[in-house]
Amino acid sequence: MTTTAPTPVDGPIGRPLDRVEGHAKVTGTARYAAEVPLPGLTHAVLVGARVARGRITSIDAAEAERAEGVLAVLTHENLGKIAAQPPLLPSLAGSVAPGETFFPMQGDEIHYAGQHVALVVADTYERALHASRLVRISYAEEPSVTVIDQGRDQAYEPEAIFAGFVPGRTERGDVEAALGAADVTVDRTFTFAANHHNPIETSAATAYWEGDRLTLHDTTQGVTATQHTVAALLGVPHTRIRVIGHFTGGSFGGKAMVWHHPALAALAARKVGRPVRLALTREQMFVGCGHREEQEQRLTLGADKEGRLVALRHHKLSPTSPFDHWAEPSLGVAGQLYACPNYEGVYRLIRANTTTPTFMRCPGEATGLFALETAMDELAERVDLDPLELRLRNYTENDPASGRPWSSNGLRECLERGAERIGWERRAAPPARDGDWLIGLGMAASAYPVYGPNNPQRARARLYADGTAVVQAAVTDIGTGVLTVMTQVAAEALGLPVERCRFEGGDTDLPNVAAAVGSSGAGMVSATVHAAASALREQLVARAVGDEGSPLHGADPADVDVRDGRMVLRDAPGTGEDYAELLQRNFLPDMEATGSWGPPPQDAPFASMTFGAQFAEVAVDPVLGLVRVRRLAGAFAPGRVLNAKTARSQLMGGMIWGLSQALLEATHMEPRTGRWANASLGEYLVPVNADAPDVDVDFIEVQDTVVNPLGVKGVGEVGQAGVAPAIANAIHHAIGRRLRKLPITIEDIV
Ligand code: MOS
């Protein structure tokens, strides 16, 4: 893997620091939610509905209840009612965030296959698993709808999707007239298989009560989301629920919302009066925490003879659950990437017998850009332009949706750099051959929104008299390296070496920050960690200049620098003292400050997006139908990079995920039974090392003074955007066939 690092830096921020929790993870001492050792721990196993729609007609739990070690068999007949169902809100909002507005085991109605219908608690996992198979449930089955083809004629246009955050219809200009007047139009339909997240750590919670106080260890993207959601469901005050999530073994959006199992674990723990551990099985991961929905997108481009876009119409059709109007926002970024005066975006939904779909890494952007950037490749062919030149011709300095200037850009530079790295000049020549393999080059632009906070982000910083500091905010590290980068941010703001700084997250007892979603954690949490640590540093400097015993007494605080925990006069670095000396002399065990940031003003005259460009080189064997991605080159402009190593890893992982989306990932619904047919890691394909090519990650430096104080735009998802169309376009270059479905499989090639 080749990479170019961003510009070297002086302070801790930006350095390729190794992960602070790396040692704990590789030595197995890191404890995950289903590994918490507790005295009297019991184990719960869920039972899922065997039909996709209908009613439970009878439950016979007698045999299960009699089985060895069984403490309880909970069903809708004895679980009890939840206090209240919280509304669907994204976890970015920082409060309640249920995965769907339906809670199972409240009645006999079945809405989707796999719906939790019973929970068996026993003294060991094996006994609970055994007893779960002894619960006899009968159903009256009704016809179900689970795929687009079954529900096409029932489609409706919702007012809003995505938990109400995205309007169902967006228009500007007159798309109909502009398409009629366009010199060239491209009108295509793209289809996408459903996808499931499949982190290696399945969703899990361990719950225990001490009197009326609940502690939940949860594998989650946001401990606060779990706290607020479980509080609402159980009717328990927030103050009596503590949620801890120090480590999360991958999630990709599947742990962004709070699904049913943490509340069920808490209810079960209350019933049996002992701690309960509830971990979903791999198969249950396909029905217990959402998915990326199957979808169809019809995209119509209108352009003039020079390839300048005059109209873009983008319609999406997808199944949602019986309860919620959810679609991933596939139309957003695809409608903002290029200058285009006339636009129409419409979401249509079909009520289906599945869970509510949910966020899945690059939710919407990845699928929307596949449609747009594949169609753009076709447009380039129609107007006889190099695909790269077509992108540059439609480049914009302003967000076409709001008309506001981008707070920072870099798309042009990313396109040019990526072209250089892949050797794009080769594309002008006829496609090369390598034995039976036909070689193709393809490219696509990449973009991902920059989200700001909806609520104030908070952090706390404390410096001890020994000169070490602890900085805290309730962020969870889902594998991104956020604990590491926040250590760097805290150390830089305090003027301490990173070794003397510890960052702590993953606990609702710590100051509240939003969940780790939407590629926004680094920007939002760094802002508040920086604010808290800077406030503490200012307090310390103020204390020193006001202290007659300090060599800095009487100095202007603005003239004081801190390096390695030592406050010195900038112009006379020999004059100063350590933080530790100041505290010890004043008999202070520690000093502490809090900081907060956001929300930013609603009427900021800018729009923000992280841009990038993706280039792919593929080898295709048209006889065997094989596609091998030989190289991926991505260039990204994510603003300030907090850690060169973790940022690169995020982008590289995103690019490989994009390859996976292009060629491998699909969940197949079996419409006759309404069940997912390949609910296992054996049959749901994800890339292994042998599938991953040489990945070239490059950075374009842009400064953004608008998005947040450190100018961080995020790297969590933009790495994936644009990879699948770059690969599809490369396949077209190699064999001359346009592919408009994901994933692209052998039968699409031969
Ligand atoms: Mo991420 S798909 O925004 O949880």
TrEMBL record:
Record flagged with keyword DNA damage = no
Domain called Aldehyde oxidase/xanthine dehydrogenase a/b hammerhead: residue spans: 27-143
The Gene Ontology terms for molecular function here are: iron ion binding; oxidoreductase activity
- Organism (species): Streptomyces aurantiacus JA 4570
Q: Which Pfam families match?
A: Ald_Xan_dh_C (PF01315), MoCoBD_1 (PF02738), MoCoBD_2 (PF20256)
Give the protein's recorded name: Putative xanthine dehydrogenase YagR molybdenum-binding subunit
Keyword list (alphabetical) reads: Molybdenum, Oxidoreductase
Which SMART domains does this UniProt record tie to the protein?
A: Ald_Xan_dh_C
